[in-house]
Amino acid sequence: MKMKNEIKYTANSKMALMALYTLNIMLMVVHGLFLAFFIFTCVQTMLTVNIFSVLIYAFSFQLLKKRYLSVYTVVIFFEISVHMFLAVLCLGVDYGFQLYFFVCVSVIFYTDYFAVKLGHRHVHGVGLSAASALLYFVTIIYARYHEPLYVLNDGTAFGMMALNSLLVITFSAVFLGALARTASKTEAKLELQATHDMLTGMANRNYLIGQLNVFYETEHLKGYWLAIMDIDSFKAINDVYGHNCGDYVLKTVAELIQKNSPGMTSCRWGGEEFLLVGREGTTESGEKSSHEVLERIRRAVEEYDFEYEGKKIKLTITIGMASHMEEQTIDEWINIADTKLYTGKNSGKNRLIV
């Protein structure tokens, strides 16, 4: 039995977890560079501190693996804060270690954002950020009135300041870039969900109404036609074969409609109904009239061998089509096509009424 709070590994969650692993690797690599620097300069205190820092980040992989993301965020916050304070205490502000307090704020919100995408609660990002800001000012005030424990040459100080500045800019760019890309993907996904039917992949009713309004404003719908298509006896398919079969039928009919109406706008109108919008004239597939296009779709469905769990199913669709008339509203236009659809339904089904 699956535990109630088990996290499902969706593509979204895998991306979030990979972002946190990447962060941890980056921090570990940076502290490896610091370790090499402190070995080279013989700053024994920071050498010891960096050994512990590297071990902390190695251990942090286990925190990520076990999904202790709140603990991970707090551990990272304290590691960066303590490390940077001690680095300034040992070397002063000329080396730029105090700049990492700004990175700390980015790290907090970065980890918090991806932790939430993995199904965890928000950490107290504002509180931790305020604490980081306070520690920054405490650190530079302390350095203002106390001499550093180690004194190195000016060239070393300048080089380390340049490196730390570059690393801080890089971290900030990476974090903000990752958040921006993720936000953009999330917005695109939400927009897709808002404008498309998740079962068939077709545009939905809202999207098509928006497109009709665009057509109306730009071309006044001159020469346009629309057709409403309904799967005949669809309720019987669900009753006899089940709703999974019904889903299969809907997806397959949607594919047949799109395949046989290239360059046109189609959508799942609702339930087992689909709506197609076209314009009189030669289409990409060579048809010259709405009648040719719609008859081709009707025959494609009628002749298709639907098969579900070894059972063959014969299906037909009924179509009502209406050309747009001048000064006709979109609702009136759709209602005319809908009326023709039901005329077809009441006169034997599997036909096109124009």
Task: Name the assembly state.
Answer: single chain
Kindly provide the radius of gyration, computed on alpha-carbon positions and rounded to a whole number of angstroms.
32 Å
Calculate the terminal CA-CA distance, rounded to whole Å: 56 Å
Estimate percent helicity: 55-70%
Total beta strand runs: 8
Order of strands, main sheet, comes to: 1-3-4-2-7-8
On the 0-100 scale, what is the average pLDDT? Answer: 88
Number of domains: 2
* SSE pattern, N- to C-terminal: HHHHHHEHEHHEEHEEEHE
Q: What would you call the shape? A: elongated
**Helix/sheet category:** alpha/beta
Unreliable stretches covering 5 or more consecutive residues: 1-9
| Number of H- or I-type helical stretches | 11
Observed structural traits:
single chain; 354 residues; alpha/beta; Alpha-Beta Plaits; 2 domains; 11 helices; 8 strands; 64% helix; elongated
Written account of the structure:
By secondary structure, the chain is of the alpha/beta class. It has two domains: 184 residues; 151 residues, Reverse transcriptase/Diguanylate cyclase domain (Alpha-Beta Plaits). Helices cover 64% and strands 11% of the residues. The strands form two sheets. A six-stranded mixed beta sheet has the order 1-3-4-2-7-8, sandwiched between helices. Helix 8 crosses helix 9. The longest helix is centred in the middle third of the chain and has 42 residues. It is elongated. The relative contact order is 0.08.
